[in-house]
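Quick question: what would this complex look like in 3D?
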Amino acid sequence: MDKGLLVVISGPSGAGKGTIYQQVIERTGMKRSVSVTTRKPRPGEVEGVSYYFRTEEEYQQMIAAGEFLETAEVYNNYYGTPKAPVFENLERGYDVLFEVDVHGAKSIKKKYVDAITIFVMTPDFEVLEERLKGRGTETESSLKTRLGAAKRELGKYEMFDYIVFNESIDQAVKDVLDIINAEKRKVKNNLSVITALLGNNQQ
Amino acid sequence: MDKGLLVVISGPSGAGKGTIYQQVIERTGMKRSVSVTTRKPRPGEVEGVSYYFRTEEEYQQMIAAGEFLETAEVYNNYYGTPKAPVFENLERGYDVLFEVDVHGAKSIKKKYVDAITIFVMTPDFEVLEERLKGRGTETESSLKTRLGAAKRELGKYEMFDYIVFNESIDQAVKDVLDIINAEKRKVKNNLSVITALLGNNQQ
């Protein structure tokens, strides 16, 4: 059996990567990665399902032991992707899907070179601005910050394998599903099947 | 504008590459490549549409001038793919689709390294044998020859980017369409769009 695929969906805030991620998970049954966090559990959150909840001391020990694919600090809490459960899923042939920011995508690609990285972008920056405004949560200043960050993130296009322009959610989800299906059809991801076929037909 | 894609569908006789090729052409409007041949025109065949008809002397001159992407001799006639019209289409941003045997695929990949090569195979060799028998045109001896050739062709899997197992025509056509769509989403095939986006947003 060939290993599963590790697929990373990334892109700027407002481009729609979260929605695409959810729909691709629902349609494919791909494995999610459960993050580790130092944030306190909220009502209803379940250890090992929502997150792995750890103290800051435990978290720092995991960092020191190199147990993360990527880790980030957000508003004084840490969030990270533990390597072990992801690699176990891949070895068992399961595909794993991630939604992370560009910094996280870079970190994952560095630690797992076979990761398939997809950058999700709006058709242009004007559309991104409209979508961010549409959220109604951005000040003029935070909007400017986000647009500046988006441009810097797109500037890192060379570290991504694919770029999906999110003109509509249906089209963007289809693009991501097509990319995953195409990757599953790569010869290098079918070596066990091919060699079995050749081996079973020695004449 | 980015260049078009050159996509090559190949695989053993009986695997279904011709049917898949026709359906992908119909659904995508990709450009066909028109072959050059030394065979005499049949009734209804049109110069420049069915084939470019050339004398053997003219054909040999084209070979000598390096004008072919691939060339083969079949039953004392030559068939070849001329480079110039293919490269013109690619430069204009049109995608071009080929259906060739494994030898031709190898030749094309050698002369155009960005060619995307897809190997079409039946789910196993038993199914291939059934399909060849189903044609009703194979003798016991020619069947054995074709199956031996099919095995040798699959043995060249390393020169192909993708492998599509033709369980049903609909699924195999979808796989090829997904591969083409995924390739169109590759960052390296969107550099002009990406740099235009970045360039238009200098702040």
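Answer marked as accepted. Chain B touches chain A at residues 118-119, 121, 124-125, 148, 151, 154-155, 157-158, 160-164, 174-175, 177-179, 181-183, 185-187, 190, 194, 197-198, 200-201, 203 (CB under 8 Å).
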